[in-house]
């Protein structure tokens, strides 16, 4: 018997609670997490009994089990900081849980994490996991004449097909707005020439009480640092067997349309790294719903970590070298509930150009958004993309093809670009990545293939 085991002691209460632990969660860490919880709950009469009742009878109604909320909303367990409801949902329900965005509080919960009360409920059965929405198929007209006629509609205004300014405008997340923009609205931030910047409000989908994502006003940093994330030990693979929704009989029998359904690809995205206008290294294929892009040098080919520090480039200058040193923990990308989020883990800001995000907030399509350290922003929404695609098929090939721009997201580290920066284009920034969203691109490909070819004429000398 070694000295450690001689003096180690696990209380009976902790042992009982560990009996309900799920999966292969790291034993020592889970034990310390439960031990920390027991110490807090013993100070509240009946709290331990209520938690044991909830864990032993998961199908029965149970009361909130609360602990005091810390200043930053997080709980530290053995050198790891995490959101308490996420920690205990991982221990007792979902070992592969990646983020608080995957959880939604039940209506019966009086102290949900998102309510910002002085106490927060950690009862794992007061939260449910957010499911990916089933997207309805796009109905592509079979008659090519129908497409040709509608592609010339002067009233149709594709939200992406704006006159693009010489330099993108800039916005900063999450500072407040004077007004909230609606998706597809015609109002945009100040023109590049005015020197003004616009700031994103909180997304309506995250602040609405009925929303599946109830985020605090200041999104907390990632609940685990990259080098200690348990997501590396148990990454969540993509589910490529999502059920295609059954078509209503009246649609499946319509001879004038061809339904084209969305399917999840094996890799939800690929990421390409650039230095100025030079591509560096191979594309990273993401088959885990949680991906870290950082500046470190892990050579193990971890399938949910893209280490830019490993990549070499003989044309690198001193500005690029210095910028690479400041990437640090980089960005955490995660795909959950049909939405893509970017969380800045770096000490320096990241800068994102996402047309889907800009459309949602009513910004000009090319606006570049600054995400400061510790902040998280939704950068793509499958449902909004599906609605735009369904509308676009009735306006011809060109309108649908224009949506391909929405499926690529550009993101720079440390250095920004646009009207407020001396760099006008992303290819002038030292270190940046391009994210290609495979699901939407694959869906577009199938729709465009069904539609045929564009009807606007083009010649060899045009």
TrEMBL record:
SMART domains: DWA (SM00523), DWB (SM00524). It comes from the Eukaryota. Keywords: Cytoplasm, DNA-binding, Metal-binding, Nucleus, Transcription, Transcription regulation, Zinc. PROSITE patterns: MH1 (PS51075), MH2 (PS51076). The keyword Repeat does not apply. Residues 182-197 have a biased composition (Low complexity). The keyword Cytoplasm applies. Residues 156-236 are annotated as: Disordered. Residues 169-181, 198-209 have a biased composition (Polar residues). GO terms for biological process: anatomical structure morphogenesis; BMP signaling pathway; cell differentiation; dorsal/ventral pattern formation; embryonic pattern specification; SMAD protein signal transduction; transforming growth factor beta receptor signaling pathway. GO terms for molecular function: DNA-binding transcription factor activity, RNA polymerase II-specific; I-SMAD binding; metal ion binding; RNA polymerase II cis-regulatory region sequence-specific DNA binding. Residues 268-462 form the MH2 domain. Residues 12-136 form the MH1 domain. This is Mothers against decapentaplegic homolog. One of its GO terms (cellular component) is cytoplasm. The gene is SMAD1. It is found in: Cytoplasm; Nucleus. Belongs to the dwarfin/SMAD family. InterPro entries: Dwarfin, MAD_homology1_Dwarfin-type, MAD_homology_MH1, SMAD-like_dom_sf, SMAD_dom_Dwarfin-type, SMAD_FHA_dom_sf, SMAD_MH1_sf.
